Amino acid sequence: MDRKSKLVIALFALVVVVIIITEIARPKPINWRPSYTSTDKIPFGCYVLYNELPSIFPDDTIETVDKSVYDLMVSRDSTLSSNYIFINEYIDLDEQETHQLLKYVEQGNSVFISATGFGWPLLDTLNISIESDYNLKEGTAVLNLTHNQFNNEQFELSRGVFNSHFTSVDSTNTTILGHITYTKENFLENQPEITVTKPNFIKTKFGKGHFILSSTPQAYSNYYMLKGNQDYVAHTFSYLQNKGLLYWDNYKKSGRIIINSPMRFVLTQPALKWTYYLTILGILLFVLFRGKREQRIIPVIEPLKNSSVEFAQAVGSLYHQNKDYTDLIHKKLNYFLAYLRNRYQIDTSQLDEKTIQVLASRAGKEVRETKKLVEYIVTLKQKNTHTEQDSIELNKRITAFKQ
Hints:
This protein is α/β, with parallel strands linked by helices. Helices cover 44% and strands 17% of the residues. Strands 1-11-2-3-10-9-8-5-6 form a 9-stranded mixed sheet, sandwiched between helices.
């Protein structure tokens, strides 16, 4: 390697090192992605809430669930009473999971769900409707609770709120526990904005247990737990009676990491990920420029010609000139019977009725059509001399059978 090449490589390595150091040292932008996992410390993660659960439920054992609702429900000890907490931007429960969750609540357990949607099967069963009011610009929403003990407290949300609320509930089984108040844009010219108050926190009885539903999962995130709204979370959780066991769902989360690659650790660390990508890019550039400079010209080699068609034409012309149709028909029959043995795995030593049935079944042909072909083959094999017409007719029938 000459001096110039060494200088280029050293310069490239220096640039890579500077880029890596810059990426590591520069401030990371705030990640506003909704996650709600117990390990995420981003604004809309649930790291703070998860670590505060033992103080909110001091008498309960906290069990983190990293599998589907169905798998937990079918494997749990049904003799133990418990609570189940779901918090995510959207909880998508299929019919099987909904059935198991309804059975779980019907037995006297409680389920707390905070999400902007709960899946159609659950909403339909509980006779509940939910919707969101989206504004063009982000506004402020205020949460409050209806209980007299909390009636004077208000909790403000200023970012990431979809103004989700319940539009209809089953009044015979449902109690409204809280409301959300927000400003709705009025798109009519010169008209003031409208202040709307809707229920966002309800309790629905089902069997011996209850569903406690909130349409504002943002209130349980790190961002609002650290901004003074932790009392709102404690007040809403107070509707869950202590049962000794609390399930925390960590499976149905927007931020759940699903990486099956052996490189999962490298790809989850920003510094290692950039190093990995830049290394691959550097190797590709090196191979591209180095190979372009030193690769010798590859001569063009013409591929061998396929002469099988010419050979078949020559052999066919020979038989046609000699007019030996008997030998030609015998060879055609031998090749065709070999084709049947290899493709359909049948015994062609005896072309009887059983062979016809098996061949028709495996070739997907009608029995009558197959029988005519086999009978014609038997007839040709029994003849001592053959004509040109026999050869043409045999070729037509074999071609039709293979189509």
